[in-house]
Amino acid sequence: MEKLLEQLKGQLIVSCQAYPGESLYGSHIMTAMANAAKDGGAAAIRANSPQDVAAIKEGCGLPVIGIWKRNYVGSDVYITPSLSDAEALFAVGADIVAVDATGRVRPNGETLEALVSGVRKQPGRLLMADVSTLEEGIAAEALGFDLISTTLSGYTPYSPQSEAPDFRLLTELAAAVQVPVIAEGRIQDPEQAAEALRAGAFAVVVGTVITRPHTVTGHFVRAIRGAESAGNVR
Ligand SMILES: CC(=O)N[C@H](C=O)[C@@H](O)[C@H](O)[C@H](O)COP(=O)(O)O
Q1: Could you tell me what reaction this enzyme catalyses (predicted)?
Q2: Is 95 close to ligand 1, i.e. is its CB under 6 Å away?
Q3: What is the pTM assigned to this prediction?
């Protein structure tokens, strides 16, 4: 456990996720993405679903932070909502499992406390709390999470909605908790990743700008169309 955290300290973790219907969907493609990230110097991969975690563990070899995005009726929690989802990720070899650690209602009346104590029945497991506010991060540390990530800032209705990374939350969390704090969410370029470390992040997770080329392509296309309609194109 300690050794893995030491390996991640000050490093880049690349999130490799694609969804059904997208051109890059498929565990073999996500494994290729993970290997490309490894070639570039990434220290770990964040991946979605037991299939992708298993494939990346086997085909890439870097440590994997597993999540399982699932929609349940009656709950807005979608990142590893239940204990059984977390168990499925550990079962295929996830080194760390990240779960939504907001205070929102979870599926089937399960509580976050119950999820954490269920995971703790087996020793040596690392749990990451994806949070959207300082209060959620402090509560997550009290519940015994091993790491806290700013993942959900901007994605709960009550957290600041911004196109930029939430450096304020990162700084406040880093000052308030003892466990490692991960900077994640909307980091756009290498300078922002470096800034996150200076602001107190233990490690940095970057996804979209590296592994979702269709989204990044869309940003370029919209900017070009904007220039065109403003009459700046020769
Ligand atoms: C809010 C949510 O569901 N975040 C997800 C969590 O795994 C992913 O969709 C993000 O890509 C990931 O957090 C990395 O962030 P970014 O792609 O912005 O670098």
Answers
A1: an N-acyl-D-glucosamine 6-phosphate = an N-acyl-D-mannosamine 6-phosphate
A2: no
A3: 0.97
Q: For ligand 1, what atom is nearest to the CA of residue 130?
A: 6
Task: Write the pLDDT tens digit of every residue in 204-218.
Answer: 999 999 999 999 999
Mutate to test the pocket of ligand 1, among 13, 14, 15, 156 (most ligand atoms within 8 A of CB): 15
Q: What gap in Å lies between CA 149 and CA 80, rounded to an integer? A: 14
Walk me through the domains of the chain, giving residue ranges and CATH numbers: 2-229 (3.20.20.70)
234 alpha carbon – ligand 1 mean position (Å): 37
Task: Give tens-digit pLDDT for 108-155.
Answer: 999 999 999 999 999 999 999 999 999 999 999 999 999 999 999 999
Does the CA dihedral 6-155-73-48 come out positive or negative?
negative
